[in-house]
Amino acid sequence: MILCLMIILLWATMGTAQTKSKSAGATPNSAPVTDIRKVDFLNFSYPSSLCSVEYARQGIGKTVRVREGEFKNKNVYFGVVADKVIYGDVTGDGREEAIVPVECGAVTANFSRSEIYIYTINDGRPTLVAALSDKTLEQDYRRAYPKAESYWGLTGDGFKLKNGNLEIEVLADGPHAAPQYIVTLQYHLSGERFSLLGKPA
User: Fold this and answer.
1) How confident is the model at residue 6 (pLDDT cuts 50, 70, 90)?
2) CA-CA distances (angstroms) from residue 116 to 108, 123, 136, 139, 181?
3) Disulfide check for 179: which of 114, 169, 171, 197 has CB 3.0–4.6 Å away?
4) In the prediction, which pLDDT does 157 show?
5) CA–CA separation, 58 vs 105, rounded Å?
6) 110-141 per-position pLDDT tens digit
C-alpha cells in the first residue's frame, strides 16, 4: 500500500513539473488592446523582409522576436530603435498608428540596414499595415537621381510625420564617413501601399 502511494505521488510530482516547464516557455494570449501606445514593441515579433534576406545565413529569420528591443547572436543583430518610435495618424482613419524603426546588421560592421513598420490596432491586436525598408528608399532615390553614386541609409533624425505623410531623411553620395547629401523623401500611405510624393529633395 505504501509503495503504491509513493509511486502515485512520484507520477503526480513529475506531471506537475512538466506542466510548469511547458507553461514557462509558452507565450500566453495577450488581452485585447485599444491603445497603440500600450503595445510593447520592445518585446514583439516582426516580419522581417530586407534584414531576413541579407542576413538569413547569419541567423535573422523571416519572423524576428525581440526581447528588450533586440535580437542578437554572435554574428548579427536586429533591434528596435526605441527612442525613435513615433505615433500619429498615417492612414487617415482618425486613429494613431505606431511607426516602428528597426536596424539590423553584422555585429562587427560599421553600418546597418533599416526597416520601418506601421502598426495599428485591429480587433484588439496590433496589426501590420505597411512597411518600408532601405531597399525601397534607395530604389526611389536612384530612380530620381540616376547618376547617384551611393546610398548610406537613414540619418540619426530618421523620420517624422508631416501632414499625415511620412517624411524620411537618408544620407547619400560621397564617402560613408562623410556623406555629401541629406535627402528627404516623403511618402503617402494609401491602403497597404506607400507612394513617393514628388522628387526627393
Assistant:
1) very low
2) 23, 22, 11, 15, 21
3) 171
4) 81
5) 10
6) 889 999 999 999 999 999 999 999 999 999 99
Query: Could you tell me the three cell numbers for 183?
Result: 535627402
Q: In the structure, what pLDDT confidence band is assigned to residue 4 with cuts at 50, 70 and 90?
A: very low
At 35, list the grid cell.
491603445
Quick check: 157 and 146 in contact, CB under 8 A? no
Length of the chain: 201
Tell me the backbone φ, ψ of residue 31, rounded to 5 degrees.
-70, 155
Q: Which residue stretches of 26-112 are H helix?
A: 50-54
In contact, 145 and 151? CB cutoff 8 Å: no
pLDDT top residue among 146 and 22:
146
* Distance from C-alpha of 195 to C-alpha of 151, rounded to nearest angstrom: 20
Grouping H, G, I as helix, E, B as strand and the rest as coil, residue 111 is: coil
The predicted structure's pLDDT at residue 71:
97
- Other Cβ atoms less than 10 A from the Cβ of 187: the count is 22
Return the beta strands (E) in the chain as ranges: 44-47, 63-66, 70-72, 76-80, 86-88, 97-106, 113-122, 125-133, 151-162, 165-172, 181-190, 193-196
Residue 115 · residue 104 · CB < 8 Å: yes
